[in-house]
Amino acid sequence: MTFSKLIPIASVAAIACLGLNSCSNSSAPRGRGMAAYNAYDRPATLPSNPSAVRVKISTSNQMVYVMEGSKPLLVTPCSVGTSSTPTPKGSFRIFKKDHYHRANSHGFAYNGSQIKKCYLSSKPAGWKFKGTPMPYWCEFKTHYGIHAGWIKDHPCTHGCVRLHVNVAPKFYRLVKVGTPVYIAHSQPEDATIGRNVPRPPDAGPLPDYPGSLMLDSKIFTMHKKPTYQ
Fold first, then answer.
1. CB-side exposure of 200: number of CA atoms within 13 Å?
2. Are the CB atoms for 224 and 17 separated by under 8 Å?
3. Which of 32, 4, 22 is nearest to 164 (CA)?
4. Which of 223, 220, 221, 213 is nearest to 108 (CA)?
5. CA distances from 214 to 4, 25, 68, 139, 169 (A)
6. Rounded Cα distance, 88 and 86, in Å
7. Is the distance from CB of 136 to CB of 168 less than 8 angstroms?
8. pLDDT in tens, the chain (229 residues)
9. What is the spatial distance between Cα 71 and Cα 89, in angstroms, rounded to a whole number?
């Protein structure tokens, strides 16, 4: 869906899980490809000492490691920024968590039965606006977060780190404000626990979600119920 396309508001069919292409386009579940994508999940273990949890992200392997000491709590694929809009590297700490986060600068303008995907700066006069939904937002640098979104087989974001929608709630529970986040081109875990991790089907071919769903609050809870080992 382009920024200039107008679509009518339609009733939203029952959808098993959410798959947001946050920071960019959005997609809708349909057919076998979406069913396979929606079924994806990764195991997670709750920490004994939440203060000992740290996050390591490998941009080359597109993998997130949530560790408690040497113990992996969650190992999951992610999507990272492109070469022109890279995910920042370095040492950070999560300083904001927001399950119901929406982007401030881009999203959807709406007026009656019309919805237009746009930047806030280009919103038509008199139209209302809601930012792109980014469920389970964990901000580690101003304007950069780890959140639920479409996972693809190549770097594809504007710098954020996207997790599969079924995995993002688990990550959100494992971390807290103050949790360290270390992002680098590679991590030592890439050669050990990060090898041969099953990845979700590429979300690239999946069709767009209707704009009406992107405006609805249910977009933030459309995922499998999290379970922990």
1. 33
2. yes
3. 22
4. 213
5. 16, 11, 35, 21, 18
6. 6
7. yes
8. 233 333 333 222 222 333 344 443 333 344 568 889 999 999 999 999 999 999 999 999 999 999 999 999 999 999 999 999 999 999 999 999 999 999 999 999 999 989 999 999 999 999 999 999 999 999 999 999 999 999 999 999 999 999 999 999 999 999 999 999 999 999 999 999 999 999 999 998 887 778 999 999 999 999 999 999 9
9. 23
Rounded to whole angstroms, the Cα distance separating 68 from 15 reads 35
b/e burial code for range 6-32 (CB count within 10 A of at least 16 → b): ebeeeebeebebbbbbbbbbbbbbeee
Token pair listed for 206: 């999946």
Q: Which residues contact 102 (CB under 8 A, 6 or more apart)?
A: 130, 131, 132, 133, 134
Dist. CA 34–CA 50, nearest whole Å: 34
Q: CB count, 10 Å around CB of 147? A: 27
How much is the pTM?
0.86
- Cα separation, 117 vs 99, in Å, equals 22
